[in-house]
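# step 3/5: fold
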Amino acid sequence: MYLISSFSRLKKNKSCALLLSRLLDTWMQLQDSDQAFLVEAIEQLMVNVDLTATSLKALQDAVEKLKTVTEFSRVHAMLLVENKFLSLYSR
């Protein structure tokens, strides 16, 4: 029943339907070109508590600014140092 109500909402809300369509198109393109980003395969950089807090605050500020200029309800930010994962923030 939930699936049927979701489909009817997509039919009525063109922007959600367009966003879902773009998401699926991008996912299919990434799958076809094997360009998926494997976060679990990235080595994590271990730093002190102060640097971790500072990097997280910088990502939080960046996400908040990005949310004010985009229409997306969810925004994600990731900080890499060369090829090592440092921090992640989602809102």
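# step 4/5: annotate
The first helix runs from residue 2 to 12.
# step 5/5: archive (pending)
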